[in-house]
Amino acid sequence: MFETMKVAIIAGAFLLCVVFAKAQVATDENLGSTPTSPLPKQNATAEPKIPERAQIDEIFKQTSLGKEADERRLHIEWRQLQNEVINDRDVVEAKRAAETARTDLEKRDRLRDYYNLYYDRMRVRARSSEMKSALDQLRTAHLSQLTQRRVRPESDSELPTPTPTPKKKKENKRAQKFRKDN
Predict the structure, then answer these.
(1) Is 94:110 a contact under the CB 8 Å cutoff?
(2) Domain range for residue 119?
(3) 12, part of any domain
(4) Residue 76 is assigned to a structural domain of this protein
């Protein structure tokens, strides 16, 4: 009995839905009438110029979202470039050569070669001029770490080396006390 009631209720609900769906057919008010004034024809040259999708993408890429967002975008692009370049055969060999250098001078020279190769490869693959200038700054920072400020560069080797001034000898305090007592 309950099952037949359930079936009857569901069938009634279904019929109601069908009736309401048929009742809501949209009609056009001007369907049977003729237009009173014809619409002016538009010229093909008067159509608004719609930019291509690539142009729209470029516009949104150039729009600044703020300093932090721009820095974050540059950092993400830098990491992508780094991931592409780090496994290049020449870059890996240059880094390995720098690690196996025997002297400090040789290691600095090989690291200089490695950084130049590494950042040149990244600069070639960079898309924006902003990224290229950021890569140049990073390269300068890495190369400046290789300089030794207290060692005379080879370019200055023709300049005379100044003679060191001798230090004054300090006398022992015990010897000074002994001289005062005598």
Answers:
(1) yes
(2) 66-148
(3) no
(4) yes
| pLDDT tens-digit series, residues 44-75 | 555 678 878 777 777 776 666 678 888 888 88
Number of structural domains in the chain: 1
Q: Where are the alpha helices (DSSP H) in 64-103?
A: 67-85, 89-99
Collect all residues with Cβ–Cβ distance below 8 Å to 134 and sequence separation of at least 6. 74, 78
Say if 22 falls within a structural domain: no
Residue 139's nearest CA partner among 111, 166, 163, 177 is 111
d(CA 143, CA 108): 9
Dihedrals φ, ψ of 33, to 5°?
Answer: -95, 155
What tokens were used for 164? 């060191």
**Assigned domain for 20 exists:** no
pLDDT of residue 139: 92
List, for residues 115-146, the tens digit of each pLDDT value. 999 999 999 999 888 889 999 999 998 888 88
Radius of gyration of the chain (CA): 41
Task: Single out the residue of 99, 135, 97, 96 nearest to residue 119, CA to CA.
Answer: 135
CB neighbours (10 Å) of residue 152? 10
